[in-house]
Specification:
The protein is α/β, with parallel strands linked by helices. The chain has nine helices and ten strands. Helix 3 crosses helix 4 and helix 4 crosses helix 5.
Length: 246
């Protein structure tokens, strides 16, 4: 893992568009190693599109995204080997068991063969899915599929995890253990970017809040500064976000 405080990602004035319609306009930001970023915004703000771009899945119409000073779209395969991504509606091959699916993902990610069983077991335990490891993925509930996707994202010891509404539909006990796992991942130097509408989750575990509206960042706040209240007049994060969106 990379040490805390070093910029992992640097985003230079990116514009993201579907055909001629810009969704993100002239956006710049830095993402440090060891940070836990909560990406907030109303529907249509561009959160998912931004996450896709930052993870190497949506090439900007303009601008540049760098990982450790290299353009992520010029070394895309190498970069994708350093990250994990959980989509809001994750896919898993329906005729694989949960365990078989994770073994496949581990191989795709280049995990050494003799390390795969231990990494898969650790991932299953972290998301409370050991009891379902022999079930076909097609027989898993949506919440279980979310947990499987999170487990898959952690394989291969990535530097960055991108989680797009990853905890939606996950049961309370499993969500607790997953949040603890994510906090431990960050404490060891990993970076998490979490998009969710559940502001209580962001306020509880994230170290930085980034608020998007109409494709632009309208607030970028360190959690400790927000909690201190010296710079921000607020009751809680929800009230503050609503006041900005108005």
């Amino acid at each position: 893992m990379t040490t805390q405080g070093k910029h992992l990602l640097t985003v230079h004035d990116i514009t993201l568009a579907y055909e001629d319609q810009a969704v993100i306009s002239d956006l710049s930001m830095d993402v440090d190693a060891g940070s836990f970023i909560g990406l907030i915004g109303p529907n249509g703000a561009g959160k998912t599109t931004l996450m896709l771009a930052l993870s190497g899945q949506f090439h900007p119409a303009r601008g540049r995204i760098e990982f450790e000073n290299s353009d992520i779209y010029k070394a895309n395969d190498r970069y994708k080997g350093r990250i994990g991504f959980v989509h809001e509606a994750p896919f898993a091959y329906p005729y694989f068991t949960a365990e078989e699916f994770l073994h496949l993902i581990a191989r795709v990610k280049g995990v050494p063969v003799d390390h795969i069983p231990a990494q898969v077991r650790t991932a299953l335990e972290a998301v409370c899915l050991m009891d379902e490891r022999h079930k076909l993925t097609s027989d898993l509930s949506m919440g279980m599929k979310k947990k499987l996707a999170i487990a898959a994202a952690t394989l291969g010891r990535p530097n960055i995890l991108f989680l797009d509404e990853a905890l939606n539909g996950v049961d309370v006990e499993s969500a607790f253990h997953i949040k603890e796992m994510l906090k431990d991942f960050v404490a060891r130097g990993g970076t998490v970017i979490l998009s969710t509408h559940i502001l209580e989750v962001i306020e509880k575990i994230c170290s930085r809040y980034v608020l998007l509206k109409a494709g632009r960042i309208i607030a970028d706040i360190q959690a400790d500064a927000f909690a201190a209240g010296d710079e921000f007049k607020h009751g809680d994060l929800e009230q503050y976000v609503v006041s900005l969106l108005r």
